[in-house]
Amino acid sequence: MTTNPTSRDYNKASVLDVILARAPLTRNELIELTGLSKATVSRAVEELRADGFVVDGGVDEVTGRGRRSTFLDVPGTTGHVVGVSFGAQTTGVLMTDLRGREIRHMTVPTADHDEVGAAAAWLADLIAQAGASAEGPLRQIVAAVPGRVRNGTEIFAPAESMKIFAGPDLHRAIQERVDAPVLLDSDANASLLGILTKDATIRNAALFSVSTILNFAACTDHEIARGNTPTFGDIGVLSSGVGGETLDDLLSTRGLLRYARTRGMHLDRVDDLWLEPQEGAARSEVLEAFTTAIVTAVSVVTVTLDPESVFFVGRLRELVDDVLPEVRRRLAQGLPTVPEIRTVPHLIGLSTAQGAVYACLTMAQERLREAVLGARRQGHPVERSTPAF
Fold this sequence. Notes:
- The protein has 12 helices and 17 strands.
- It is globular and about 75 Å long.
- It has helices spanning 7-22, 27-34, 38-51, 116-130, 169-177, 187-198, 247-250, 253-262, 272-275, 281-305, 317-334, 351-374; strands at 25-26, 55-59, 70-73, 80-86, 90-97, 102-109, 138-145, 148-150, 154-156, 182-186, 205-210, 214-220, 223-224, 239-242, 245-246, 309-313, 340-343.
């Protein structure tokens, strides 16, 4: 028989929420953080222990007189999650437990694939390698890609070298090869989610991922904005304000390298714009175009979304740093209010995977909470080695 959750169930779920957020911690800390009575917390802990969601994790050090307290923790058998950054050049895989503690991370060059199934098998193998030492079941996978993603399954306008992944086939192929729910997301959304997770004070913000392609993300009231059509977030098609160049032509590594070469700069890679000494009118022209494109992009999102902050991540971040003073000066001349603009340190392959992990944890922890609220046991609790949810 199924019944509605009781106040006892909600207290139990509240205790679990705090353990997932703060473990390892003591019962006294649980009482303080939840505001529940000692008896309520003790009962909830024992039930969660019987469900397999909580274990003892050592004892604290006590100075002076008094009894040591046992730390409570989330067992490895509860499971783990995986965030993947599937980039055009680099792929990162990060595996954590349900508390968000790293089990293993890997960063490797992205292999060239001419067939979606082979790429999915390659990703599934990387995930299996990362989880070789993990306990419990794999609960969730989120893979971030350089492109726009709808409904967690369908990719639109990926990077040029990843065009074979446009559509739903990559999601389907990965899902067939792993024993866990799979969702896709854009690398920009994953990067912004990583920032939001680390700073709860951010309400409205925009983010530009300036790498292989220009990708865009935004949040309203601390929630990632997601559109219903493929057009949402396609800011790269807009005019940059420089000749016939689009924003993607000047704010992506591929596009900016092409533009620099047409201006007479003999560059092997776009990084040489800031890593190697570059003088002359050609470099000045390239930086001027890059600056104008950033001013245009920030102006567009400022007048349409009214963000408090605008972030830049990706391979072109260092070049953004070089021109930011001029960008701010021009924006102040044209806009009544200029949002905070800053670049964010970005570890290629890992930072985006971290954002993907945060998305995994939110989903897995929510399912765990639903399992706690939906569990109506008959009789005495039964010890479980692997929680069911």
